[in-house]
Amino acid sequence: MSAPAIEVRGVTVRYRDVLALDGVDFTLGRGRVCGLIGMNGSGKSTLFKTVMGLVHPDRGTVHIEGKAPVAARRAGILGYVPQSEDVDWSFPLSVRDVVMTGRYGHLGFTRRARRIDREAVEHALDRVELADLADRQIGQLSGGQKKRAFVARGLAQGATILLLDEPFAGVDKRSEATITHLLRDLAANGATILVSTHDLHALPGLADEAVLLMRTVLAHGDPEEVLLPENLAKAFGLDVMNRV
């Protein structure tokens, strides 16, 4: 029996006196899109960084297809689409250059792109509908286009697991539809997607399952069940029952 795509067991993370995650426990199978929801400060970004191996838990374990997160990153299994504020958009890189960074693990010591690397980049740009903007400086793109560029980087990398941190924040409707369709297509072909989002209404159309987080997992399962008012009230407060 193969290992789960993502396995998080009893993960607790503290930043000095601040408890960011408390005994987080869930698994994701292959070929699934999972929506991660919770209010600001619920620990979503910390969970992403822990799954990526950028934050080491005080307790608990994380495995990516049976590997430690750092090993999974080195193997190119794990791709990450960050929030916009985590990126220096003034850096002099073209969209194509950014997508090519996803190939670094394949380039060897010379760091010279081969034909197979260039083809992977062009194919990824085509899939996210950015081929015509490939030579533009990355900071000149719209918010939605920037997110699509980082999705393309994960595609070029060949990642089988993608983490997307708020990919729909501040994006146009075309980019939202493009990204949603692409994530569904990737999952249908065996990829596993963990995506944080504040758009609760769009969640059932995006995800196969959802995790409701408030430093710990309050609910995990079918999006329609996770979005029941009694569950949301635990995470967002009773007033959310009048808005969902």
Task: Please describe what this structure looks like.
The protein has helices at residues 44-52, 69-74, 95-100, 115-127, 143-157, 173-188, 203-206, 223-226, 229-236, and strands at residues 6-15, 18-28, 33-37, 59-64, 78-81, 161-165, 192-196, 209-213, 217-221. It is an alpha/beta fold and 244 residues long. A six-stranded mixed beta sheet has the order 5-6-7-3-8-9, sandwiched between helices. The protein has a three-stranded antiparallel beta sheet with strand order 2-1-4, with helices on one face. Helix 4 crosses helix 5 (143-157) and helix 5 runs parallel beside helix 6 (173-188). The mean pLDDT is 89.
Determine the fraction of residues in helical runs and give it as a percent range: 25-40%
Number of helices: 9
What is the chains' assembly state? single chain
Fraction of residues in β-strands: 15-25%
In sequence order, what are the helices and strands, one letter per element? EEEHEHEHHHEHEHEEHH
The beta-strand count equals 9
Spatial gap, N to C terminus = 39 Å
Structural class: alpha/beta
| Strand numbers in spatial order across the main sheet | 5-6-7-3-8-9
Give the radius of gyration: 18 Å
Main beta sheet? 6 strands, mixed
Overall average pLDDT: 89
**Weakly predicted, low-confidence segments:** none
Q: Quick one: overall form? A: globular
